[in-house]
Amino acid sequence: MTENLLTVRGLHKVYGKRDSKFEALRGINLKINRGESVAIVGKSGSGKSTLMHLLALLDRPTKGEILLDGTNTSKLKQRQLNKLRNKEFGFVFQQFFMNANDTVLNNVILPLKIAGVSAKERKRRAMHALTIVGLESKAKNKASDLSGGQKQRVCIARAIVNDPAVIFADEPTGNLDSNTGAKIEEILFSLNREKDITLIIVTHDEELAEKCDRQIRITDGRITSDEDIAEERELAEMAQEEKEERHRKHLSGDMDADGLRDDATVSHVKVKEVK
Amino acid sequence: MKALDIIKEANQSLLRNKLRSFLTILAIFIGSFVIIISTGINAGVNDFIDKQMNSVGGEGYLEIMNTNATQQAAAMFSSEVQEYSEEEEEQSTDIYITEEQIEKAKKIDGVKSFDALPSAKAEYLQLVGKDKKIKVAHINLVPRGNLNMDLIAGRKADSDSDNYEIILTQEIAEAFGYKGDSLDDILGKKIYLAIPGTIKCYTVQKHSDCQTKVEAEIVGVQAPGVLAMAGSRVNVALWNKMSEINNEGVPKENTLAVQATADVDPDKIDDIKKEMEDIGLTSMSLEDEIGSIKTFFDAMLTVLKIFGGIALVAASIGIINTLLMSVQERTREIGLDKALGMSNGRVFATFAIEAISLGFWGSLFGIIVSFLIGQAVNFVTHETILSSLPTFQLIIFRAVDLISITLIIMLIALLAGVLPARKASKKDPIDSLRYE
Fold this sequence. Notes:
The structure holds two protein chains of two kinds. Chain A has helices at 48-55, 78-88, 104-115, 119-132, 148-160, 178-194, 206-210, 229-252, 257-274, and strands at 4-15, 22-33, 37-41, 63-68, 71-72, 89-93, 166-170, 198-203, 214-219, 222-228. By secondary structure, chain A is of the alpha/beta class. In chain A, the strands form two sheets. Chain A has a six-stranded mixed sheet with strand order 6-7-8-3-9-10, sandwiched between helices. Chain A has a four-stranded antiparallel sheet with strand order 2-1-4-5, covered by helices on one side. The radius of gyration of chain A is 22 Å and the shape is globular. In chain B, 54% of the residues lie in helices and 15% in strands. In chain B, strand 3 (124-127) and strand 4 (133-135) form a beta hairpin.
């Protein structure tokens, strides 16, 4: 059922040289499946941003490799990486990064403009993206006239305008109050659920991280814990089912030493199937 | 990203900083304006000279002087101190064209005619049967050959004819009362030339007693021109008659010609000039004469163009400065563009095209302003200092010049844009996004 999207093997990133050398990542191994929502959490300086930049192909690792859809990205040329980012990724930043003097529509259009989509088509798609975030009425407004929450929604529209496989969100609610932040989270998670877009969020907001399927905790350039909530949830559900079945069998009186072992075998098969 | 998008974007970002862009464009404008105007004047002068050349024709027409005479003329303007030498003096005193030289010159291959011209002068002109006398300051010859006169009526005086023929200038014809539509009426009229006898005039009581009136036919009227050979013109037969009367009683050796004209085969003109040189004669063609006017204008306009070029160099430093500021200001924007997949090449192109646009707008304004000023100058000069030369337009704009100037300025702007554009394209997306 699940499909592997990103595979990371032995990732190292070193900044600087000799005395000023700083090892931001010290061997990261990671697999992210299509449609997952992943939170990368850690203190500032832990290497979580570096990891996101590498995953988003904005930077190249010192050592190790990143496979996207089975393709080894370290073998790709800069031009191909640019194209891949443009087509497969969407970005949402804490500081928004919008062209304040330009219209909302033009800000959303930017990735399509870079991709070389025709003027008519890119307008249609940008309007569609704006409709998804509920800002179609603001298309002609200047970006600087919007509130913080609206700006971040425009950025989400910009991130999804090219139908990406992954959205990378760097502290997407960091600059927003809790109400507007909640709304942004809602939009991001509904995109994750309904459009099956993989969500990779870098944050130190534990509450936001809790809402993701999985939390990858980074400390000093290493993954210190990787909790797959969905898996846990699934396992929990399975255990529950098992329990219920056993309970049912127990009620039907089918209760012997062999029966117990049989049940255990069945549940093992079940788990395999789900995985 | 398509080329049109990049051009649009580049111009939009120029509009974002209106004052800064305007000042940069202004700097380019100053350079382009100077260059366009001087090119325009150059074209105007050349066009006029060409027109004059065409109207005069004159291929194969040579004016000849004894080389000693030209050297003496040159020596007058020289401050060089020379030691006196008797021998040299003996040789060089002779500024006349000798019989021997005339004979030799006539035998040069390609020389069709050679007229040595002793000086000749007239004192006034008077239409036969009329009282009005017009003073003559200077009279010229219609040489043999295909030298065209810039005539507005009638025909050229025939120098191969034995009849006395004269071409009047437009001003003199008008002074006699023939102007506009009636100008043609003066053709065929007889006119007196009052010709003085130089020696005779010392001996007579009344000045008019030493004048001989010679009757000639008016065959043409000449348009005003800028070339040195302005003034009324007579044919060779009349010239010789005038000279004969002027020099009556003067010893033969003192009436030799200082100047000569020759009609030669235009294809052999360079060889002929060389051979003339060998027999001690310096010859000058119309091209040579006009060439010196051209050289003067060319030198003046080259200096102007150099100033324009210097202004452009300064302007391109302005372009570099403007774009460097722009790159810095837009660091985060560049970071975002790159994160969203824009290639280094496109980032480079965006700034390079911004530079080219600055150049384009600068030269476009240069063209517009030069054109307006040029029209005004042409109008004013036409009414004033150049009113006597209706065919002369001081400033002429040719599309080829304007387009090539614009292209060159755009190229200069592009070169200026390379440094900032490279800087922008080399930026790291992550660092750029973090830039405060």
